[in-house]
Amino acid sequence: MKKEKELYRDFLRSKNLKLTKPRLVIMEAVFENHEHFNVDDLYEQIKKKHKNVSRATIYRTVPLLVESGLIKQSLRCESKDIYEHTYGHENHLHFICENCGKIIESGFSDVANLIDQLAKDEKFKISEYNLGARGKCKDCQ
Amino acid sequence: MKKEKELYRDFLRSKNLKLTKPRLVIMEAVFENHEHFNVDDLYEQIKKKHKNVSRATIYRTVPLLVESGLIKQSLRCESKDIYEHTYGHENHLHFICENCGKIIESGFSDVANLIDQLAKDEKFKISEYNLGARGKCKDCQ
DNA sequence: GATGCAGTTGAGATTCATTCTCAATAAACT
DNA sequence: AGTTTATTGAGAATGAATCTCAACTGCATC
Ligand SMILES: [Mn+2]
Ligand SMILES: [Mn+2]
Ligand SMILES: [Zn+2]
Ligand SMILES: [Zn+2]
């Protein structure tokens, strides 16, 4: 079984939640592509494969995927919360173009090291970084 | 005249916008306290001083304040956009406690320098940094 | 300090992402 | 298979943010 499915199943079990068909379909869709996505993107992607799941269920499942550590919420874009699967991927930061909506990924570890130091100074325990910037991509300036 | 009012007036003039009473009331309210705020906070604050301004006008004015450089949008909190006046203040990043909601401010420039370099590599023009982390403050661990 | 014009306001309607409700259904365990 | 308990889908509800438009106001000009 794929590592992420195992992790998901164990996570659900640990919370007395059931590994249902919709929950599996959603999780698989999330790992099917490597783009950042919002709930509606996911809904359409799943619909295209004729494995329909309601929006309500996607809205309910995404927070579970976040809690399980498989995906992370990213900077919001066009008034919608966006996510990306992060399990098995390097941390990185996001540059979001305010004009065309494009998301550019960039390095992370140097920035994270610096912030870790600042957090340490404040005795703050980081659980999730929120790092990026808005602006104009090179095509939109 | 206060420096920020001057800057505001010049900004408005440069865009052929009028310095109206509501716009002035809102700007003054923003500089009256040093907390992070959302539109509703501002609305209530202004109402308390009996200088009522409609929510619609606040929603219309806040983006102008952002564009003028007097305030910045910060990390959103409880599904609402939050802001802080930044004119005359050092840039800083935010550590948000997931438990008690406290916002801790910390240094910035080293982190910004690093990110500036990464953005330069991508030919990305930053208009707004979005830097911080969620986690637990020292009192909540 | 009256006039004209373009930008502005407030109130309420509207949009739209997200959350909620609840009756019907499915997973998990014995 | 039967029992229990969580889950689902459809649509209603919520609420932050935006839009509409008739009445109003800042401001430049005379
Ligand atoms: Mn990413
Ligand atoms: Mn701050
Ligand atoms: Zn762009
Ligand atoms: Zn705390």
Give me a quick take on this structure.
The structure is a homodimer of 141-residue chains. The first copy, chain A, is an alpha+beta fold and 141 residues long.
**CATH topology call of the largest domain in chain A:** Arc Repressor Mutant, subunit A
Strand order of the largest sheet of chain A: 4-3-5
| Oligomeric state of this protein | homodimer
Q: Please write the string of helix (H) and strand (E) elements of chain A.
A: HHHHEEEEHE
> What ligands does this structure carry?
manganese (II) ion, zinc ion
Task: Set down the secondary structure blueprint.
Two copies of one chain form a homodimer.
Chain A: H1 3-14, H2 21-32, H3 39-48, H4 55-68, E1 71-73, E2 83-85, E3 93-97, E4 103-106, H5 109-121, E5 125-136
Parallel strand pairs in A: 3-5
Antiparallel strand pairs in A: 1-2, 3-4
The complex binds manganese (II) ion (2 copies) and zinc ion (2 copies).
The structure holds a DNA duplex (30 and 30 nucleotides).
What does this structure look like?
The structure is a homodimer of 141-residue chains. With 141 residues, the first copy, chain A, is α+β, with helices and mostly antiparallel strands. Chain A has two domains: 84 residues, Orthogonal Bundle (Arc Repressor Mutant, subunit A); 43 residues, 2-Layer Sandwich (Dna Ligase, domain 1), CATH 3.30.1490.190. Chain A is 43% helix and 19% strand. Chain A contains five helices and five strands; from the N terminus they run H-H-H-H-E-E-E-E-H-E. Chain A is globular, with a radius of gyration of 17 Å. The N and C termini of chain A lie far apart (46 Å). Chains A and B meet through strand 3, helix 5 and strand 5 of A and strand 3, helix 5 and strand 5 of B. Strand 5 of chain A pairs antiparallel with strand 5 of chain B. Bound molecules: manganese (II) ion (2 copies) and zinc ion (ZN) (2 copies). Chain A binds a DNA duplex (30 and 30 nucleotides) through helix 2 and helix 4.
